[in-house]
Specification:
This protein is of the alpha/beta class and 187 residues long. The protein contains 6 helices and 7 strands. Strands 4-3-2-1-5-6-7 form a 7-stranded mixed β-sheet. The longest helix has 10 residues. The radius of gyration is 16 Å and the shape is globular.
Length: 187
């Protein structure tokens, strides 16, 4: 895990569900095969309605057509991010596209746990609503341990994050299995 994550923001609204993050049609790819796993990145956020894709203007694809990686490494979202099904493919897809963290007002708990347990992304929660402040394409600097974000595109505006808490050691280890191995719980 990086202590400071720098990159361009991709902004989404409220109630982005796992079917929008990775539509069910793409779940036929096998994430254990590298030649297929990359397709999760290609189709990440492909189910988000066009008007809500890349706020405030919309109609901005997260991953350009026929590409596997996104130009955006930080997702900023509203309330209830990752709601819907419990598929762990959703945080995997965002990570395969190159996202390093998601900053949301709050998460569907299963999505949050899938991020942590799989070691895919750093799920952060904002103290205040950021989707009306940050714009898609803004250059952000996320200070994970210190709990704040700097928007370099908006006069270095600073936004506070909630503490990650007990999930931090699992994220640092790279997921729950790596954490259990390091802690001597698994051999």
């Amino acid at each position: 895990m990086e202590d400071i994550i720098r990159g361009r923001a991709y902004v989404l609204g409220d109630n982005i569900d796992t079917d929008q993050i990775i539509p069910a049609i793409y779940l036929s790819f096998d994430p254990s095969k590298p030649e297929e796993r990359k397709f999760f990145g290609m189709y990440a956020n492909s189910g988000v309605p066009d008007a809500q894709a890349g706020l405030p203007t919309g109609n901005i694809r997260f991953v350009r057509e026929n590409e596997f990686k996104s130009d955006y490494s930080i997702i900023v979202a509203g309330k209830n991010f990752g709601c819907g099904s419990s598929r762990e493919h959703a945080p995997l897809a965002l990570a395969e596209a190159g996202a390093k963290c998601v900053i949301a007002e709050f998460y569907a708990r299963i999505f949050f746990r899938n991020c942590v347990n799989g070691g895919y992304l750093v799920p952060l929660e904002s103290v205040n609503r950021l989707v009306e402040k940050v714009r898609t394409g803004d250059e952000l600097e996320v200070h994970v341990r210190d709990g704040f974000v700097i928007d370099r595109s908006r006069n270095n505006e600073r936004y506070e994050l909630k503490p990650i808490g007990d999930a931090l050691p699992i994220i640092e280890a790279g997921g729950v299995f790596q954490y259990a191995k390091q802690a001597g719980m698994l051999k």
